[in-house]
């Protein structure tokens, strides 16, 4: 099953950014959507959160069952 080019499964590490929000407070945001805050915390917390988010996204992208579930859901709707 082909994935759309803009899907989250095609995101790279650089697609998430850690930006300073205030002194000692940072936010994790998508690279192109700086107002869409995913998490707020210390720089270390945001770096860990970024790594975990990337890891989980990669795991989701590799799980073949996701495509099977989507196909089954479409069949049930019909």
Question: What would the keywords be for this entry?
Answer:
single chain, 78 residues, alpha+beta, 3-stranded antiparallel β-sheet, 2 helices, disordered N terminus
3D structure, described in words:
The chain is an alpha+beta fold. The protein has one domain. It has two helices and three strands; from the N terminus they run βββαα. Strands 1-2-3 form a three-stranded antiparallel beta sheet, covered by helices on one side. The longest helix has 20 residues. It is elongated, with a radius of gyration of 16 Å. The chain starts with 15 loop residues before the first strand and ends with a helix. The N terminus is likely disordered.
Task: Summarize it.
With 78 residues, the chain is α+β, with helices and mostly antiparallel strands. It has helices spanning 43-62, 65-77, and strands at 16-22, 25-30, 39-41.
Helix content: 40-55%
Terminal Cα separation, in Å?
Answer: 19 Å
Instruction: Count up the helices.
Output: 2
Lateral arrangement of strands in the main beta sheet: 1-2-3
Overall shape: elongated
Give the structural class.
alpha+beta
Query: Which residue ranges are poorly predicted, with pLDDT under 50 across at least 5 consecutive positions?
Result: 1-11
Largest sheet: 3 strands, antiparallel
Order of helices and strands: EEEHH
* Total beta strands: 3
Average of per-residue pLDDT values: 82
Q: Which percent band covers the strand fraction?
A: 15-25%
Count up the domains.
1
Q: Calculate Rg over CA atoms.
A: 16 Å
